[in-house]
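Quick note —
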Amino acid sequence: MNTAHDDTNASGLRFWSGAPTSDAPHDVDIVAVQGLGAHWFYTWVRKVVVQDTKQKTKERSGLRKLSSSRLFGRKSKALGSNGECETREVMWPRDLLVPAFSNARVATYSYGSDWKDRQVNTSLRECGQQLLEVLLQHRQSASERQRPLILIGHSLGGLVIQQALTIAVHGPRYTDFRLSVAGIVFLGTPFQGSGEAAYAQWLAELVRLQEAEGHRYTLLKTLQKDSPGLHALSIDFWRSYSEYDMTCFYENKEADYGLVSTQIVSTQSAMLVGQKLMYMDADHSGLNKFSGVDDKNFMLLLPELRKMVENSGSVVADRYRSKDARSAGNVHWIVPRTVNSLFTGRREVIERMQSALRDNNSSASKQKRVVITGIGGMGKSEMCLKVADLMREDFWGVFWVDVGSQSTAKNDFLAVAKALGSPAESVEEALRALANTKKRWLLVLDNADEVDFDYARYIPSGVQGAIIVTSRNPQCSRYSTGPAEALEGLDAEHSTQLLLKAARVPEEAWRSCKTKAQAQDVVRLLGSHTLALIQAGAYVAEGYCQMAEYPKKYQQHRKRLLEYNLTQEQSRYRDVYATFEASADALERSSNQEGQDALDVLSVLCMLHSSVLPLEVFEDAWRGARRVLEESSAEMDGTEKSDMTDDLGRWHVAQLPEFIDTAADERDSYRLKKASARLVSLSLVTRHALGDGIGGLSMHPLAHAWAKDRLERERQRQAWATAGCVLALSRGQTKLWQVRERELRPHMQSFLSPNVQTMLSCRPQEAVLAVLLNCGWALNTMREDARLEQLLGGIYQALDITPSDPTTEHVPIWELAARNLGYMGHAREAVKLLEHVVEVQEATLDEHHPDRLASQHELAGAYRANGYIKDAVELLEHVVKVEETTLDEHHPDRLASQHALAGAYGDNGQTREAVELLEHVVKVRNTTLDEHHPSRLASHHELAGAYGDNGQTREAVELLEHVVKVTREAVELLEHVVKVEETTLDESHPDRLASQHALAGAYRDNGQTREAVELLEHVVEVKRATMSETHLSRLVSERALSYMQSITE
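Predicted structure written out below.
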């Protein structure tokens, strides 16, 4: 019969069977779960023609519309020609299953999954959880809880069933539900996703184009082909239910949607490993619609359901008998404490551990072991307590052994043996007693942190039992029989919740934006470290400060706050610093060289930033030290050279840690690698691969703070000097500082964070000043102009000097200051300072000295930038003349000076001289540089301009034609440079902006005007935000942009 069915209150469970009777009791439940976007009633309905009638159907017109709802739910109505017929609705769960199984309670389940509804944005996990809870609501009586259950899922409905059953594995209250599932039928379930999900998502996005931004198409994204989430779900499901009775059906017809014809769920995606697979002669939306008992597809399905129903009673009964045989509940519970009431989050880790430890196959051939590693105070032991508590009823015995020391391990193992009724007097005897126990047991080996200890001796032999090991040492992961768990900080949401719980903030206040923001500030400050968050919350709860005040208190009294002891529910170490100090104690107790080297590495790291430090910096420091030793005489000491303030000497080499063997003729990184490995094994640092073979190390911010705070004042000063000498000596090896500038930048900033007076007091002033100036040149290269200006200001104040009245003995300071002034846009001040530098050097250095020539070249450049062209010409002519007598014709410095002089000639109207000099430069660079080298191209371009100014039009054209010929290659090269710098340099870095400016010029030369304008607009926007209005670099880019915009209008 035809019945109207609207969508009112459609979600939930609907029963189609009548009430049970004494003749027909309900011995089994059959529940069918709909697909994505399906109508709760019509998804199960096929309309069947009954007879012709004389009543004419209404006129139908229009084109068939392609409906996204057909992909995973009900089909659109087919438009037929005018005819006279009557149809009836066959709703097969009601009309076919209820009569076929009189002893079954038949139901259908529907849920919010219509992506056309802007209010629906549920995840697969939420759908699975909801199905689980709804079914439990209707299976609460004693007769219902263990009643066999058969599940049928169409399309996404099958995944919802899979998710519900996977969740059921992880909670004791779901045990009856899990054990009572007698069979499952999957109708076109996309276990591996569907390529058509992406198409459906596109349609959904069109529907929602104008709707709220909060929607994320969660279910559709889950269904996409090769979804990682579905892959993980299938693995978890298979681990727990591979022996259950299941049948998978798939479509063998493509769905026809007018313009599109496709198989929605592929055969491969619709199958489960080891389970029966059959096809139906239907497309995807026809898998869940049948015309009657004689429908050939229903005739394939019915025998599978009948077999499951007939076997359901014995299958479920056997399962319960097996469970009772394996465990009559928990008898032995030897666990040190209850789960902390503040325990928050970690749900996914807990579920993975439960799945790995649960005995899903009685014929398992190996022991189940899970290892949890992580930094101290992250909650490894609490995780074990939580898992043990959740799985208590799964194990006859749960035993906890603290293996932090051999004495505690022995005491705890003997306690286990006593509980087992064994007279064991040694650890070995206790292990044999546990290995011979046939009942299910769980053993927790807590605090397996010693690097040189083999904890395999504490693992019982054989295949019996399950074991959890906690360790700071990542190498202990090898004891795990499955994937180990590397415990990291809680996510931002759970970290905030944990802090608010510990601070005893009422839960209703958590929603306050102000409260949440204050808590998030503390979370960021503490790096989501679990124990630190609990300590901070307790500190606030005890009234020592308000949440908003904690960051300031932390900056003032960091050590005090991180050593604050909890009075209730204490962890093993009581406070954050104690967790790290336990690892340091292991190093200090070590009598070998490796332990001391590890402490030396730690002392350098704590004086820098907590982010990744490339270990190559230590190797380059060795190279720099060797260069210093080779260049200096036995008597020369870096602290005695007042006229060479920035020179590094033997004192600086002597400050390097011992694992940098400066006496060795060849570099050897063995000790550095061993020390790093030891720190990694104690979870004090984290290793990172950087593609250079040696990698880098980083520290958790709290471990970094502890490593510094644990050093006494004098040791801190020594550690700072050592770190500075490592940085300064490594800077001479330019490759590292070019390639790893982004990684090294925060370390340089952190090292220079104390005020200059404090830094100069660390060691002999002249020696420290040399380190600061070398670091200053690093800042200059990084174009940290404002930070360098601040550093120089501190040096002026500490030495009581001023750039407005420069002294003669601090020339290296004035050289650096002049470069900084030029970059900061103070051209005139830079000129004055450079004139002073040149004047002093002309009086103290030989005419051919490289430093003197470099300063003169620099001054000439400042002259040109400031409009003093004749002065620039005169000075550059002198530099070129000297270099022609001292440097080879191909030397880059000589060619650079000649190029600069040619430019000055051009500015001064000396076109012929400019042409002659540039022709020479071009000739030499043509023989020494690649055709695409920027310096060679720049010389060509400059010469072409000089030809034009000199009236040599034909020569200019010929040369420019060659330049244009390689312009396309230049564009490609610059695009590559810009792309690399976007990953290595900050957005406002001058070098990155310069490359972008140059690329814009190449675009212009190549006729790509629109791209040139867009890129220059970005460059100008950044420079306006970071540079003063009079800054020369900003003015140049603004003028270039104005010109480009004018020619495009």
